[in-house]
Design goal:
- The chain is mainly α and 131 residues long.
- Helices cover 81% and strands 0% of the residues.
- The protein contains six helices and no strands.
- It is globular.
Length: 131
């Protein structure tokens, strides 16, 4: 696989993690407003098990998919990279999951930090689709 594709995948991973962290902090703030302070350990359990955080798992799944590509015994192919990029593009432009779509659009409307993180992800995804 071309070195540029690997670098691009690593950059996408970094930007997805930043977006995920920004969204997670937003959800944590909402949760704590309703239920009180949660520790980092409690937050991890909420992210894994609580319905309020379930929609974020789609972004987590993309990051895990990228990690698995880097850790696989067989090197990822250019086609594998293109598939992950297409999945990411679809998730953020035309998500099939209505709950994700609704919550993500609401987050974009209310949190400037989410808009900035989203913009960084989309800039990378647009560059790839154009080049």
């Amino acid at each position: 696989m071309p070195e540029g594709a690997l670098q691009e995948l690593a950059e996408l991973r970094r930007k997805l993690l930043h977006l995920h962290k920004t969204l997670l902090e937003m959800e944590r703030t909402d949760f704590e407003r309703d239920f009180g302070y949660v520790t980092s350990g409690e937050l991890l359990q909420l992210v894994i098990n609580h319905a309020q955080f379930a929609w974020l798992r789609q972004i987590s799944a993309l990051v895990v998919q990228i990690d698995e590509m880097f850790d696989a015994e067989e090197p990822a192919t250019l086609s594998d990279v293109q598939n992950v990029l297409a999945e990411a593009r679809a998730l953020f432009t035309s998500p099939a999951d209505e709950v994700f779509k609704e919550k993500y659009q609401a987050a974009l409307q209310r949190e400037p930090d989410v808009v900035m993180a989203h913009s960084e992800v989309m800039k990378l995804l647009r560059q790839r689709s154009n080049g």
